[in-house]
Amino acid sequence: MKLLIDDQIRQNYPDLRIGVVIAENLNNKIYKDDLTDFCKNTFTKFANKFESFKELGDLKNIIAWREIYKSFGVNPKKKKPTAESLLARVIKSGFVPHISPAVDAYLCAETIHYLPIGGYDLSRVSDDIILRYAKLGESFVGVGGSEEESTIEGEVVYADTARVLTRCWNYKDCDFAKIDTNTRKIALFVEGAVSQITDNEIKDTTNSIANNLKNYCEASCTVKFLTVEQNELEII
Q1: What is the pLDDT of residue 177?
Q2: Is 134:154 a contact under the CB 8 Å cutoff?
Q3: From CA 135, how far away is CA 178, in angstroms rounded?
Q4: Domains of the chain by range and CATH?
Q5: Which residues, other chains included, contact 81 with Cβ-Cβ below 8 Å and sequence gap of 6+?
Q6: What whole-number distance in Å separates Cα of residue 87 and Cα of residue 89?
Q7: CB 198 within 8 A of CB 31
């Protein structure tokens, strides 16, 4: 299985790099080793840096992802990049997500450089994963949803041969390939589509994800990095 970058995406985002974490033998059923305390402390420490969620709008990586969304025709005020949406909620309400051990562990890494993170249960992905432009009206059902959505033409999506896996680059993952308590093998993606987002920020985030999954989910992790010179990367 490979991660593939469509030629048109590479042409329009020549600075695109993607950090990938592949985690195997995942324990995603039982919270252990103070993961809930780790999450609470991580998000509390993050929130204490800000007086208002509006201050997120001054951070360069939040600004960068807002502009990336605008570049493919999506209003980031209506569909917020996933990291901004989560972190704003943390600041506004003290929200600490508890979804499953693996999801909690990787979401904590969004507090480091404010980069979106998303991914899939690899047992439910069909063949290669490609980052491409959507056609008008491709079917999609988001995590936790039941109603079918339709893509807009030209939005950036991850897809496999069977379905759209993520809408609007990293806005919403699909329900079919979601990471749940039965998941044992996952791939997670951290993207930098413009030069303002540095290699080190992407790598710091992926390394943090891997460490969290090792420490709290007993996972065996491999970290990979797709460079600006690459249009494909072997996942498994």
Answers
A1: 98
A2: yes
A3: 22
A4: 2-229 (3.50.40.10)
A5: 62, 65, 66, 68, 69, 116, 169, 170, 171
A6: 5
A7: no
